Amino acid sequence: MRSIVKFFSSVRLAIVLIILITLASVLGTFIPQGRSTAEYAARYDSLAGLFTTLQLTRLYSSAWYLALLVLFALNLVVCTVVRFGAKWRRAFGPAPAADPQALMAMKIKGRFRLSLPLAAAKDKTIAALRADRFRVTETPVGGRTVLRARKRRLGLFGSDVVHLGLLVILAGGFASGLGGRRAEIGLLEGETADVPQAAFRVRLDKFETEYYPKGGVKDWKSTVTVVENGAPVLTRVVEVNHPLTYRGISFYQTSYGWDWQKSAFELEVRKRADASFSKSVSLKLGERAAVDDVEITRVAIRQFVPDFVLGEGGKVQSRSQEPRNPAALVEAWKGEERIFSGWVFARYPDFGSGHPEGKSPFAFVLKRYEAAPYSVLEAAKDPGVNFIWLGSLFVVAGLFLAFYWPPREITAVLEETQGKVEVTAGGHAAKGGEAFQAEYDGIFERIRRPS
Amino acid sequence: MTESTLFTVAFILYIGALIVFFAALFARREGWARAGLVLAAAGFLFHTAALVLRTASSGHAPFTNMYESLSFLSWSVVLAMIVFGRKSRVPGLAPYLMLIAVALVALASSPLMPKDATPLVPALQSYWLWLHVSVTLLGEAFFAVAFVASLLFLGAGSEEKKERLDALAYRAVAVGFPLFTLGGLVFGMVWAYRAWGRYWGWDPKEVWSLITWFVFALYLHTRIVMGWKGKRSAWIAIIGFLAALFTYFGVNYILAGLHSYA
User: Fold this and answer.
1) Residue A381: is it exposed, middle or buried by C-beta count within 10 angstroms (0-12/13-18/19+)?
2) Contact A25/B194, CB-based, under 8 Å?
3) Of B128, B107, B112, which Cα lies nearest the Cα of B196?
4) How far apart are CA B239 and CA A66, in angstroms?
5) In this complex, is the C-beta atom of B218 within 8 Å of any C-beta atom belonging to chain A?
6) pLDDT in tens, A45-87
7) Which of the two ends of chain B, N or C, has the fewest CB atoms closer than 10 A to its terminal CB?
């Protein structure tokens, strides 16, 4: 047991662990994480199997990376606890029996004589130290009086506060990893959906996309109502950077799109031979609609893509969900005879004339394509997040304490010799030596000055 | 004056300061270095005005693309140079820090960087943009001070000079590390939680800022607890700054991730 404690109390172990965690983290940024087996096979060839076995493809949740973090946490706990007692005594404990020789060996030191009785010399010294906000404790040791003055004692614990904060953050991370839940909820306007693992539902009342005057999305706004036991409880607008939190579950605006498969279209039918002929037909995807003409009786839209692109092997695909290049596969019949089949582009109405079936006597214009917009909200429950904020607070406060609240300590020994009082003093500060020397000099000049 | 005029004037003054600083360094004239500091401070004022003007005209924080964030980073480096260059009696510090600042400004003004102020995408519309980016880049500017001091340490001859540079590097880390922790990691986590619903997602930029943090944690522990000083400390500080630089640049251009704004 003792050897285990000794092992974990070593700063060397901390340094080895920091280096290992750092190198592992670097590795994880150069191997893409969490991709498909096929992608790894293509990218790394024969090494893919090895990478997967070593869990390098999901490194940050791998057993060995987590083990490193657990070891690091243990190391932090033991290091901090083992050193805490000594620090506590240093900050709040009684003065050790200081001996003038030891004080004279310190970096900041001084020795002088005061022509005052011991009690007066002591009072003067204490008053000067207190004037600089030192807390002074007094211990008579034999014929000597030992004064121990300390200030900014909390600064000694800066690093402990940082370490405590890191432990709280690590605990929060594990809590998030084990108890965190995330689910995407896609909603059309007016739809209500269950929230996984919650006793309430959410309804999307309205979804808007705002654009900048020069184009570009300015904002996505989902007006969301929480419905509990069949009754609406609250309505909020959820935007990026402005989530809604209800009963521990937060809803984030994460994505959006259009339900293109339920689009409503308006198709204009023209005849190339007859410029005055124009008929508009409203129809839905897959539905045959009557044109009411002898030469062309019915039309249908077989397929629709919002962002037309030809993929591998000439396959029609949609590059995105955005209506950047809307295209419809239009078919037309005369009685039972199919007289047209080709892609019609809303943005390029003339493009269809060059379709593979030759010049058709008909032309089609895709005048309207409307789909209901839907919003994707992410519902997230994260039991660790408050630990993270608390831990972060500790880390930052601890860092500022450690760097900007340096503890200072002055020990003075007063000894009566030949009717005078000999004062020997030494100062200690872990940081800010030059500034401390100046403070020390100031204090002792005031003590030596005849009053 | 327009923003780009102010920026150009600042650039010219910085180059002037750079030349004067190096002249002072090689001619060993301390008085000249003071003139360099005046030039740099004048440039800094113009640069500040340019940043203010850009903020006013674009309506958002001046660090939403690479041009803007480079400009702000160079501003921070000049600020750190003025803070440390005034007090520390290390003649090499100001010239080499100024060199970094001028390189950053030059990169910002290169034609590769689009300079148009574009409207903010929804994810960036948050006051956390101000807090996260400004505090992080300020912290990194102080890492640059530690970097220059450490490089000078490795090249320094006399023991006295070495001791001064070693202490200077430590003081710069003591300023940069808390700022970087607060801005880069803590504010970053808070913002990520508000925008994406998770405070940490192992995105390459997140991981690299953690790596930078670890390197400087290593610097502090080897130094304070194990008493490493001098050469080894200097190397760790150099690696730390390079990690910060990679977090800033490399991740955007080499590793793909969510964090691809600037």
Assistant:
1) buried
2) no
3) B128
4) 25
5) yes
6) 888 888 888 898 899 999 999 999 999 999 999 989 988 888 8
7) N
Q: What kind and span of H or E run contains A208?
A: strand A200-211
Locate the domains of chain B by residue range.
1-112, 124-262
pLDDT, tens digit, for every residue of A267-298? Answer: 998 888 888 888 889 998 888 888 888 888 89
Q: From B122, which residue of chain A is nearest by alpha-carbon distance?
A: A219
Q: Please tell me whether the interface predicted TM-score (ipTM) of this complex is above 0.90.
A: yes
- Cα pseudo-dihedral A390, A391, A397, A401, rounded to 10: 140
Q: Spell out the alpha helix ranges (H) of B110-203.
A: 128-155, 159-180, 188-196
User: Quick check: B217 and A11 CB within 8 A?
Assistant: no
Task: Please indicate if any CB of chain A lies within 8 Å of the CB of B201.
Answer: no
| Amino acid at position B131, single letter | L
- pLDDT value at residue A23: 96
pTM recorded for the entire structure:
0.86
**Model confidence at A334: pLDDT above 60:** yes
Report the alpha-carbon distance of residue B133 to residue B123 in Å, rounded.
14
DSSP A229: T
Ranking A214-218, B19-23, B131-135 by mean pLDDT, the lowest is A214-218
Residue B48 in this model has a pLDDT that exceeds 80: yes
Contact B189 A399 (CB under 8 A): no
A25 → closest Cβ in B175, B210, B218: B210
Residue of B nearest to A430 (CA): B224
Per-residue pLDDT of B76-87, as tens digits, reads 999 999 988 777
User: Which class would CATH give B1-112?
Assistant: mainly alpha
Option in B185, B196, B214 nearest A21 (CB)? B214
What's the average model confidence in pLDDT over B210-235?
91
Distance of CA A133 to CAs A111, A130, A407, A435, B230, Å? 22, 5, 12, 15, 35
Find, in chain A, the residue whose alpha carbon is nearest to that of B173: A403
Q: Cβ separation of B193 and A399 shorter than 8 Å?
A: no
B34 lies within 8 A of chain A by CB: no
